[in-house]
Amino acid sequence: MAKRAKKIREGRDYRRRQKSTSIYFLLWAAFTALSLIIVLLLGFSQSFVMEQTYKHEAAQDVTEKGRQIERRVIEGAPEAFGGNNSAYIRYLAVYYDVRVFILSPDGALLYPQEPQTPDGEKLFDFSQTLARMQEEMQKQERKSVVYEGEDEYVYGSKISLYGRDAYLYVEKSLNLIVETSKQMDVRMLLVSVFIFVLSFAISSGVSGWLTKPISEMTDKAKQLARGDFTVDFHGTDYGKEMVELADTLNYARDEISKADAMQKELIANVSHDFKTPLTMIKAYASMIMEISGDIPEKRNKHAQVIVDEADRLASLVGDVLELSKMRSGLETLKISEFDMSSYLHEILSRFDYLKDTKGYLFVLEVEENLWTRGDELKLGQVVYNLIGNAVNYTGEDKTVFVRLKKMNDAAFRFSVTDTGAGIKEEDLPTIWARYYRSSETHKRPVQGTGLGLSIVKTVLEKHRFVFGVESERGKGSTFYVDFPLVSK
Length: 488
Ligand code: ADP
What we know:
The chain has 11 helices and 12 strands.
């Protein structure tokens, strides 16, 4: 029921993921938005900031020129002009590239002299210009002012010319700036459109280029998910991150394929292991029914075989469960402090029947009072499995050496040595991972399920203890575990 619910939930998540936006689109949108922002900023700076800057410069320019003209006007026309003020002022206007007038307080044009109609009528009326200037002077409470007119900047100053009040009017036209600015705006718009179209194209190109390896890897990962372990991920053309991702995926593929192979091997071996005792049980039960049922001696012998085989089945099931519980990470360690020395004696006592009935010899070198910290039951199983293996694989002399020795203030070593055939060097790394040793002809005094060392490895790795094996062909093997020493 719970499994079903999980499946449904996964299904839903999967659908939701499929609906979400693609990285291609997100990248493309991000790039395009970025270029749009840049273009808008450019446009804004052009039409607003630039115009403001131009105007500011124009105001500064007219102020500067106005002051110089004012100084020169007051000084009077140099000799070269023969006292002709009108000519001098015209000259200044051309020189400074501005319009210059001097007005009388009643708004009449003093300089340059104005051409008049034959009947003496004035051509221009400067009264409004003067009124505006006077208004600015009042507003700014100054004699010299700078202000913005309709399409121009004006420098105005009240001066005293030949003992009379007069007004200097210097005007710089903004027409050129406004015109240039407008032209620039049009060009800017064209450039912006061009940039936008270009970035649009580049965005889709770059997004496609960036997402291509992801799509490729996704396709391959799907292939992998379908159980095809021949897929090869490669990201060489796309930069460091993609190469790393490809390497990681290749690593994952190898691990999954190894796990898959192990899983298949485990199932094959475990089912084989289940089958043998079951066949025996069935055969001996039939024998009891058909032949030995009435002969107590034979019947008991046959019944004993059934009991032994049932025990074998039970320990096999126990080991498989133990391993899968630990591997799945469902089980946590129950850490406590305990006296390993006395625990070792207790474990060794379980092998007493071998001493008594089968002539095994256990040579002990066990230091007392060595305390450690860990999961007592699981570490006990480790020690039991290692001693059991030594018993199973020791030589003709049926001798097993068991040692428990302090190494330093922080650790002590448990080791068990047998006198058997040893382990081939090439087998050394794999014995821990092996679920089962199929070429089994050895008659073992201690029941083995082929999972003993896998359990040892899993438990010790969970504890992060150092452990290992040293083996010499024909002389025997030593398995060891280093325990942390707890002072008591
Ligand atoms: P098994 O039940 O087969 O002993 P284990 O996981 O305990 O399973 O051990 C895995 C394999 O490692 C064994 O089948 C055997 O080949 C090898 N092995 C383990 N201990 C020893 C030893 N003391 N001497 C020689 N070989 C050993």
